[in-house]
């Protein structure tokens, strides 16, 4: 289930407009919607999870998190506004912490017990910004700095804020404000020189410098193709370069080359049956675990894997499981494929993984495919060159009945293996058919203090995850105002020697004097912040009245004054009280949530009446009583019963008493259904600026009038004779008379 997190720049510089006539923020919103449309073409997109983070401070910057729906994501995306600073460092830290909320709870990182590539939660962060200067409350920054402190528990176990299955891609909008006459450069999209580019490359992603709408669409299509399940590994060469082969490249280059160190991803394909990646062997840690150590050393986000260029023979034993991962195309894969040696491999190591020796023992190898179209990483048991021949002898020679010499060799091998490999080795032996080779008393877990420490971190992470998820979507409390800070060391204006002359110049009684601005005159002064949540009060606050609505507001105030009864003025007009934005007119569910709970029914035995939207006489059919005659006709017909069989088991009780048949249903008398009464007629009568909804029932001795304006119900107990038109005219006159008396 890939996680797609969009980091949108909401700084004030995103309000600048391009030559297309739209602002950068609108272009960013359109890019996200286009990305979702392109992604929806892939059937695998059904399991995608979308998140949205802006450049605001956390938690207000988290617009859509783990528990928010796709509709919430789209709503928050449309409501983004470009007001603020370009605090991309803090926003990136917020995005990484949001992705890492549940990792300690689920145990996906498997700290201290090896790195399992098949335990992953692939995530892609797409940052869309204009590449302007990085600004914060501390000033302008030239380099990107991520905060070192974070409230997320367990962040000290990893050196970097990201993980090996999280990559960052950035779209830097460079679309000019005027149409350029120069032709667009064809080919690939270049990298951007902004400060976020090094961060993208460290995580395994890249940046795109976008100069036109065509390049933006090209970048979005490229990003959709990069949504792959995999982890990033740092491959680095150890030892001398390989000798040239007969079919490989002849020229030899000296010095560091691009394929010596690569920061690329390995693809972790999911199981086609279950849709979940399956694996057997971990990548070893870069330290030997100590049972007596109270803590774990912090690990790097990406494992440092060394590869030796010495040609080795690839080893695979039947019935012994292994893991196979394809490498992302890189200079390393290109160099291996150019050698055209599909029958040789290069062993891979992790430094300090063994108890003795800096390089450690091999845990797998790199090998080109037989068709020479890709390079695969084979992950085997630790020090596979020793254990695979032993397991081969166990299967082919000893037939799973090992002698004492073989057991001694196997025990010597176990002493050189990190303890966390015992669990994977036991599962592999069980799959092979030899489950009793490993004793149960072998210590393969972590120390007690480390286990307790990890459990404590998991509990704290669970509390933090619940807290952050609860804060998502809630607006931060508004501050009292914007405080003015004093940055001048000059004296106040009142301490100036020419204060009297300056005061006269301000009042216009004397010649004008130059006056220097001094912020100390406004010590403790605050600028009020605009609260958009408050509705404008046109009758209370004149500053809430727009300039274009002054005349209309004046007529409303005059009407409010003249129509006031007993000198009671209303604080708000009726039309403003019921004015609702078009986007919120159909939001009836939120209105119901804020309504007070209804009172209990006076007579609970009566059928429960539904809401009065539509037909007010609509009842709940499930709660209505069933007619006994209908129950007799339809309920006593037993289906699938043979003649002579009873519907109840014998000896249970007396047969059910049959009810006397209605005279209308007896044989010999024809049943004529009753005539369907005419439907009720609904009229709307306007009297005294009030809409009255009238239901005219022809066979009812009274009329029902609903006053929709004040929600009052009048029962007019009037027996009226005559035609339908006469009754309607008489009823309208009664309504007018009642409205005039109100």
UniProtKB/TrEMBL annotation:
GO cellular component terms attached to this protein's record: integrator complex
Listed GO biological process terms: snRNA 3'-end processing
A Pfam family this chain is assigned to: VWA_2
Superkingdom of source: Eukaryota
InterPro entries to which the protein is assigned, alphabetical: Beta-barrel_INTS6, INT_SG_DDX_CT_C, Integrator_subunit6, VWF_A, vWFA_dom_sf
CDD domains: vWFA
Region (Disordered): 633-656
Entries under Gene3D superfamilies matching the protein: von Willebrand factor, type A domain (3.40.50.410)
VWFA domain ranges (all copies): 3-227
PANTHER family in UniProt: DEAD/H BOX POLYPEPTIDE 26/DICE1-RELATED (PTHR12957), INTEGRATOR COMPLEX SUBUNIT 6 (PTHR12957:SF23)
Protein name: Integrator complex subunit 6
Source species taxonomy: Eukaryota, Metazoa, Chordata, Craniata, Vertebrata
